Amino acid sequence: MTNTINVRRADTTTVVRVAGAVIGETRDALILSEGDLAEVMYFPVTDVAMAFLDASETVTTCPAKGAASHYTIQTKSGALEDAAWSYENPTEAAMRIKGHIAFDTSRVTVENV
């Protein structure tokens, strides 16, 4: 695997749904590719209902992107711990995702509409 980061703009309107509720919608999503890893969609923070997200104490580190701050998503049926993350001070290679947030697609739905 290579640590090459590629970021491109998505060409569609993209939404993120949690338990059926839309918590984010944007025409300005970014798609990040990193080596052989699955692509990840990043939403501008300004297009996400951040009132549903609480910062967690979890911080993970990626050599290619830097330190990621994680968020717990609050839903009517409970909390989704660390189901979202952002790179507040990304590396130079990942600078385009600064001010954006990604979601764990195994627990929320991210789709183009």
UniProtKB/TrEMBL annotation:
Which positions fall inside the DUF427 domain?
A: 15-105
Q: Which InterPro entries match?
A: DUF427, DUF427_sf
Q: Which residues cross the membrane?
A: none
Gene3D superfamilies, alphabetized: Domain of unknown function (DUF427)
Q: What PANTHER family does the entry give?
A: BLR5716 PROTEIN (PTHR34310:SF9), DUF427 DOMAIN PROTEIN (AFU_ORTHOLOGUE AFUA_3G02220) (PTHR34310)
**Entry protein name:** DUF427 domain-containing protein
